[in-house]
Amino acid sequence: MNSIFLKIGNIYIYWYSVILLIGFLLGCFIVIKESKKIGVDKDKMENFIYNFYSGSYRCITSTKIFQLSYHYTIQIQYE
Predict the structure, then answer these.
(1) Angle, CA of 41, 47 and 50, to the nearest 5°
(2) Which of 9, 40, 62, 75 could form a disulfide with 35 if both were Cys (CB 3.0 to 4.6 A apart)?
(3) Separation between Cα atoms, residue 64 and residue 62, nearest integer Å
């Protein structure tokens, strides 16, 4: 099976990202639906979901930037 879901010019969309997106959207739908059952405001849950995932994205991105900068600093010092 090909790992590329869609190719538009130089932009590739992989199956893995499509599956993650479907899981994210399904999870958001379930959380919002269940929050109504227990009496939590829909807007509060949407804000929580947004803050959780945007915070996770920022954390992963900053970690990758730190790892790259650390890797290249070590290489430069020992050359």
Answers:
(1) 140
(2) 40
(3) 5
User: Is the C-alpha dihedral spanning 7, 11, 15, 20 positive or negative?
Assistant: negative
**How far is the C-alpha of 10 from the C-alpha of 43, rounded, in Å?**
38
pLDDT in tens, 25-55: 998 899 888 988 999 888 888 888 888 888 8
- pTM of the predicted model as reported, rounded to 2 decimal places: 0.59
Classify residue 41 by its DSSP letter: -
32 in Cβ contact with 45 (< 8 Å): yes
Closest among 2, 1, 28, 24 to 13, alpha carbons compared: 2
The span from the CA of 6 to the CA of 51, in Å, is 29
